[in-house]
Amino acid sequence: VEASIPEPQREAWLKHQVSGFKDKDAFETDVVRHVETTLARSMFNCDESAAYAACSLAFRDRLVLEWNRTQQRQTFSDSKRVYYLSLEFLMGRALDNAMLNIGQKDVAKAGLADLGFRIEDVIEQEHDAALGNGGLGRLAACFLDSLASLNYPAWGYGLRYRYGIFKQEIIDGYQVEVPDYWLDFNPWEFPRHDVTVDIQFYGNVHKSTDDSGKTVAHWEGGETVKAVAYDVPIPGYATPTTNNLRLWSSKAASGEFDFQKFNSGEYESSVADQQRAETISAVLYPNDNLERGKELRLKQQYFWVAASLYDIVRRFKKSKRAWKEFPDQVAIQLNDTHPTLAVVELQRILVDLEGLEWDEAWNIVVNTFGYTNHTVLPEALEKWSVSLFQHLLPRHLQIIYDINLFFLQSVERAFPNDRDLLGKVSIIEESQPKMVRMAFLAIVGSHKVNGVAELHSDLIKTTIFKDFVSIFGPDKFTNVTNGITPRRWLHQANPRLSELIKTKTGGEDFLTDLTLLNKIELSVNDKDFRKEWAEIKLANKVRLAKHIKASTGVTVNPSALFDVQVKRIHEYKRQQLNIFGVIHRYLTLKALTPEERKKQLPRVSIFGGKAAPGYWMAKQIIHLINSVGSVVNNDKDIGDLLKVVFLEDYNVSKAEIITPASDISEHISTAGTEASGTSNMKFVLNGGLIIGTCDGANIEITREIGENNIFLFGNLAEDVEDLRHSHTYGAHTVDPDLAKVFEAIESGTFGAQQDFAGMITAVRDHGDYYLVSDDFHSYIETHAIIDEAYRDQEGWITKCITSVSRMGFFSSDRCINEYAEGIWNIEPLPIDKSDTGLGKG
Ligand code: CR1
After folding, report:
1. The two domains 78-93+128-479 and 552-796 share their CATH topology (first three levels equal)
2. 166 CA distance to ligand 1 centroid (A)?
3. Which residue of the set 239, 242, 481, 678 is catalytic?
4. Known catalytic residue: 324?
5. What is the pTM of this model?
């Protein structure tokens, strides 16, 4: 605190302390000032994007004050902090969220109107911060919202990608990827050019003996890259607490470029180093639930982990505490295995740089880390080749070998004569080439391992991590069922429903204690309430219908049943099952007489989601959905009875429009494959029902809302293995209704049949790994039940209201409190309203 202002001068600071706008006028003053000074524009050239910029800057000013105060408060209180390490933060837009969390959206709305703008149009100007792929990244964003809202001292650490997840365009029915350069204007980040860390790669290790005879390892040579911090304020809801998300950006360590080379005329190569360094944080890998083992990805991971740990350790060292107190001050959560190198890096810092004994250091490490597993899919479990490690991080490889040695020795002591076991749990897989198993390293290096829904947490204990349960005992393994923030996913996305709920729960407290939702169940028979409920759903559907028209050109009838599946495209999520079902519906309608058709219930099948650029089958699925759409949507026999649309570029801000507008949404993964799912929670919270398999959080949603309020179908996780075995490779008899669907595709009904051959062969000839045929009949029958249930509108609304009232459990606040108590051992930091944040001196 050398830069601290001395006591006598502090009065002047307090006198001039900037305060947030108190009313509409003050807000307008700030906006006009930002337009005229910060943006150097005027009322004669202020468009919506300038209004967005100025409005954001006005809110940012407010946010920054609370942010500074929060940081000072947390520093002075010296309490334990949690650090959430995630390679993905799928934040979406920030302005609307800031206005709502601060509680000044009404002020902004009125102020913007005075100045000539509609707040909705201003909000629309913002580019999504899309630094993530799907559920894992959005979960991290919901967690940040809850951590701040609950006043926990917490930081997020991630990478500041220059390009987030690509923008998806649909051209002639095919996905085309376009780079998403989102940093043109980003008022929500603060570059900290004074907060930098030098990160080392490659080089070699030599060992020496110090005066006391101890061996010391030195990692030398190689190349250095600079990490620069960019900070993003994270406002809590209805609290001044504003936490920090720190994102690292890579830069060449040695200035801008090589002057010597430049002066000698080698212009191109003079910038090569700079470009190589900047490549590290240039782009987010666009894979969801898939790892590809690319060197640059490992570089990203180490770059981010090393910078974050340096920062965390630097902060701890300022407290002058003894090292053994580190886990009392610091909890670090590993969001999947992506940051697992942090375990090794902390051990390296403690042993190589700080001179601690191995065992003492290791104790600290294990007590500091917790690891969350998000998937059991084998293709998503990270493994890195030993040779890549040797090349890129030679000292870390040695430490991994030592960690493994000591671990295996302890296993051997506990389970003598079990050679087999040693091979099974070794962090090093004795394959060709040898691989480092990151999940095993994360387990060994953490004091708690958790799954993200009950079924998933049970599955990891009985399948992929089974042997570790025998070794460490069952208490190390726990469950924390995922949650979502009701601020963004109800209050922000569905303001009218939020208002209506408020009238029945007695104020806005349900947004901080979601269990209060149960009060609306008392109004389930209240006529006016039900009427208003139905009106809101319809209005949300009208809004989505407009979006569909604008983005696809297709006109849909808002009173049709909206059937939605939006999520990353993946075979395990089974969009193919959905589109095969849609084709079945189409064929059935075609076979009816015009008279019979009139009795059918109109449906709109809405799809959205990105395919990883290299995922051929996922791209084929998108193409089939679009091809079916162009046939069905133009079939005069069908009219409004069936429409099929694919919404381009599904992202967080589009989810905010889509989620409140669904009647039924699809969560239909092969049982045992979807760890949790979180959009299932969002849809139910917004008064939509779901069709789902007994998978992930669907099971707990059923338990909470009751099985009459959910449409479950399909085989159970426990039967999946046997079913897979029973499929005869090469000649699998498919379900007869599905066979008819295949016939239609193969006869060219939806365009060139060879375009979709892969999807059919996967089921018919390649063993149907995802059980599409096994579940098809049950899927079709369940959709027929849904049609019937929807005809009974009164019964349907009762189901919706009842379900919403019972969704309290799925708040990310509940989830974060469970982590805080069961894994991190941290407490919220109470807010003293009179606190100036300047501390006591
Ligand atoms: C899972 O597939 C889960 C999220 C968040 C995903 C999804 O079911 O809801 O994590 N897993 O826990 C993942 O991305 C790499 O693994």
Report:
1. yes
2. 19
3. 678
4. no
5. 0.97
CATH code that applies to domain 552-796: 3.40.50.2000
Q: How far is ligand 1, taken at its centre, from the CA of residue 452, in Å? A: 8
Grade residue 262 by pLDDT with cuts at 50, 70 and 90: confident
Contact 328, 308 (CB under 8 A): no
Tell me whether residue 682 is one of the annotated catalytic residues. yes
133 CA: nearest ligand 1 atom: 14
| Residue among 285, 337, 375 to mutate when testing ligand 1 (max atoms within 8 A of CB) | 375
Q: What does the pLDDT read at residue 228?
A: 98
Confidence of residue 840 (pLDDT cuts 50, 70, 90): very low
What are the strands of the beta sheet with 642-647, ordered from one edge?
Answer: 642-647, 603-608, 561-566, 664-667, 689-692, 711-712
191 prior amide bond cis, ω within 30? no
Q: Which of 86, 133, 136, 139 has most ligand 1 atoms within 8 Å of its beta carbon, as the pocket-test mutant?
A: 136
Average pLDDT over residues 616-630: 98
Q: In this structure, are residues 474 and 640 in contact, taking their beta carbons and an 8 Å threshold?
A: no
Could you tell me the pLDDT band of residue 729, with boundaries at 50, 70 and 90? low
What CATH number should be reported for the domain whose range is 78-93+128-479? 3.40.50.2000
Q: Classify the complex by whether its ipTM is higher than 0.90, answering yes or no.
A: yes
Stated as kind and residue range, the H or E segment containing 646 is: strand 642-647
Q: Where are the domains of the chain?
A: 19-77+101-127, 78-93+128-479, 552-796
DSSP string, 560-628: SEEEEEES---GGGTHHHHHHHHHHHHHHHHHS-HHHHHTSPPEEEEEE----TT-HHHHHHHHHHHHH
- pLDDT tens-digit map of 636-645: 999 999 999 9
**Averaged pLDDT, 162-167:** 98
List all residues whose CB is within 6 A of at least one atom of ligand 1: 135-136, 139, 288-289, 336, 374-375, 380, 452, 482, 674-678, 696
